[in-house]
């Protein structure tokens, strides 16, 4: 019974990720945005994550378009939840460019590879 729930969770996580990863046609992706897979820290949630999408949002007071990033945020403790405690969850968030810290000195993650790794029994 527990394995069925785990398989269902893995399937739902995979479906969620497929819906948030932009298609290979990135014509709407802002040219000045961080590359997909860039490691970032969300100041709002104080969590490490990766950029999964970017788009233009509001205008700032100077009339410049503000970039909003979609982030896949990781649990603070570990990739592998400890079910003895209340496990922290993966989290999706949209953050203004001013609310993230980008780690440009680290090579960006291959997002599809990361999700296949997460979907491959790591949550069991």
CATH topology-level name of the domain at 28-109: SH3 type barrels
Number of strands: 5
The biggest beta sheet is recorded as:
5 strands, antiparallel
CATH class category name of the domain at 28-109: Mainly Beta
Range of strand content: 25-35%
Outline the structure in words.
With about 120 residues, this protein is α+β, with helices and mostly antiparallel strands. The protein has a domain at about 30-110: SH3 type barrels. Helix content is about 20%, strand content about 30%. It has helices at about 1-20, 110-120, and strands at about 40, 45-60, 65-75, 90-95, 100. The protein has a 5-stranded antiparallel β-sheet, with no helix packed on it. A hairpin with a 4-residue loop joins strand 1 and strand 2 (about 45-60). It is globular and about 50 Å long.
Set out the fold topology:
Elements: H1 2-20, E1 39-42, E2 47-59, E3 65-73, E4 91-96, E5 100-102, H2 111-118
What characteristics describe this protein?
single chain; 124 residues; 5-stranded antiparallel β-sheet; disordered C terminus
Would you summarize the structure shown here?
With 124 residues, the protein is of the alpha+beta class. The chain has helices spanning 2-20, 111-118; strands at residues 39-42, 47-59, 65-73, 91-96, 100-102. The longest helix is centred in the N-terminal third of the chain and has 19 residues, at 2-20.
């Amino acid at each position: 019974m527990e394995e069925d729930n785990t398989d269902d969770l893995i399937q739902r996580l995979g479906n969620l990720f497929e819906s948030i990863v932009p298609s290979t046609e990135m014509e709407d992706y802002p040219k000045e945005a961080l590359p997909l897979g860039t490691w970032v820290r969300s100041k709002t949630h104080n969590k490490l994550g990766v950029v999964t999408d970017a788009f233009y949002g509001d205008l700032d007071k100077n009339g410049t378009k503000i970039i909003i990033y979609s982030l896949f945020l990781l649990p603070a403790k570990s990739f592998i939840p400890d079910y003895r405690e209340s496990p922290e969850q993966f989290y999706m968030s949209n953050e203004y460019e001013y609310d993230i810290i980008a780690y440009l000195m680290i090579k960006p993650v291959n997002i599809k590879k990361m999700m296949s790794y997460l979907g491959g029994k790591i949550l069991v």
